Structure formats: C-alpha cells, structure tokens
Fold this protein.
Amino acid sequence: MNPSLSSRSIHRICSSLLALLLFAAAERSPAQATLGQWDEVVGKEIKTNQGKQLGFVKDTVVEIENGRYVGMIVSFGGFLGIGEKSVIIPPGALRDDGTPRTLFLNMDEKTLRNAPTFEVSKVVGPPQSAKVAEVYRYFGQTPFFATPNGPATLNGEKLEPLGYIQKSAQVLFLPVENLQGVPLGYVTGLRDLNRVTGRIKGVIIAPYGNFVQGKMKVVQPQALRYNLKHNALQLNDHEQAFKDSPSFHIFRGGQFHEEDPSRPGAHPAPLPHGEDARDKAITLKISKRISADRKLSVYEKNIEVATVNGRVTLRGRAVSAANRDRLIAYATEAAGAGNVTSLIEVRPMTAAEKAIDR
C-alpha cells in the first residue's frame, strides 16, 4: 500500500466524519460551526420600506473563486413551511438602516413572489449566467460579471464570466488541499460578506488537528480553486507555507485575534470604526470606489478602510506605489485633504501571487 495515499485517505475520512458532526451542530446554531460572519446574515428579517415583514434569510449564495457575494436566499409565505417560497436577492438590493437583524427591500410581496430564480450548485455556463443576470436586473442591480448577451465591460473595465456558485452552507466543511493533493484542512466559515461591495474578504480554514485549540487560518478566496468534481477546494500554496501563515483565534461575531501578535509579519488588531452616519458614509464611498476599480489587485481590494470623526485610516498592502496612490486618492476624495492617514505597505507581487490575481 502506498503510504502517502493511505495517509491522505485517512485524512479525508476523518474530515468527512468531523464535518458530519459539525454540520449537525450548524443546523442548531450556525455560529458554532462557522466561527465567522456568515452566521450574522442568516436569520435576518426582510421587510418592505413600510415595515411589513416579507421573510427571512435562509442562506447566502457565493462564488468563492472570485471572492463574490452573489445573493441572499430569502424564504417567505406559507405556514409552517407549507407553501413557502424562496427567492435569491442580490445583496445590493437590500438596505440596512441600522435596525438590528433587519434589512429592507423596496418591493412588495406580490412583486417579490414573481421574481425569477436560478439553480444554485450547478456547473455554470452562459445559460446560467444569463439567469443570474436576469435576477439582478429584476431587483434593479447591475450584474458584476460578463453575460452572453450583455456587456463585457462595466465603466470601461473588463468583466469576468460568472464562476461556480454555491450556497454558503455547502461551502462549509469542504476539504481544502494544496495543488500537490496534500490535505490541509476544511472550511469553517466565510469572513466579511460585504453587502455593499458584493465581496467576500476571507475564507476561514481549520487546519487538521487544530480545531480543538481554535486556531484558524484565513485566506483570500481568490487563492482557492474548486477541483473538477467541486467537492473540495485547492489552495495555490505549499503545505509548509500554509502552516507558517498567521493563525487566528476566531470568536462569535467574526472577531479575529492574532495568535502571536509579537511575531514578525503578524496581522494587527482591526482598526476602530466610527459609528455615526457621516463616518459610515465616508467609509462606504471609499469602499465602493475601490471595489469598482478593476485595475487594483485582490490585495488592494481587501485594503482595510476605517473612518473615525471624519478622519480615514488605510491599512494593508499595495502591489505598487501607483496603486497605493490610487487608494489614497479615493480616500482623500471622500474625506477631504489632510484627513487621510496611510499605513499601506508597498510590496510587489511574486510570480505565484500573480497567478492567483488573474
């Protein structure tokens, strides 16, 4: 018997058994299983702008390979599950006015009931992307991807085709391995599903043997690819590089704590954010400009933006001085000259990183 194959098989069997046990826990309390922010979305109430209840968020739909937050699955109508209908709503169509656990939709129930839908967890081709685009346009949203009969550019920038889409609940507990087939761990959550930008900031991975200690790895979704059967994710990294990357203790509500903040290269604690409407509006404006700029790399798309008392702090990595200056310009445009502090590190991409940032 080949020892490496035997070890790999054992890893897969153990991860499958553990996934089944944890999935049962997820049905009772998603936060226990995801350890991220997916659980902050599921269960939210959807109301009309007039305050009438429409339904509840049952799950979210994501495109992992491009780091995209595609939509929310909202169920409504029926009684005790009988006659219930589910539709998929683009995240940008929903409004958050600060009401706890509530989002608002500018649509009545009759119009919502007639919304088109699409099949999730299906190998995506032109017909499928056309259906997703139809849903987006029904809710007044512009598709973020190229479609067979639609434009290939948006605001002068090239659009990418829609990739493989899946419910978040089906992404959880997927095995993760490197390109050499070495098992690394499994998905336990999705970090920062941003309703405004339509992006996912990170995929939370539990390395094998570390779940009890609560030590997790967080990787950018663009670094992951599905295998041919779409039943596992592959990380474009070596096993040792994955082990050497920073580990986090992750708590309910999506709070991340670096395991060893004194270690060189460790990720610092999140920047403080202002809570008043003006600060939120400035952060939102900057985030929208960054998200829409297709000349920026995935590293710059994930830059940290925080506004407190009208002053903006930018922190993260830029792959060039020119891109750093673009980010600072967006922040200055929103907050005004003299109100921007840049903590951006300029570090060019390696050849492996350029392969990820396609």
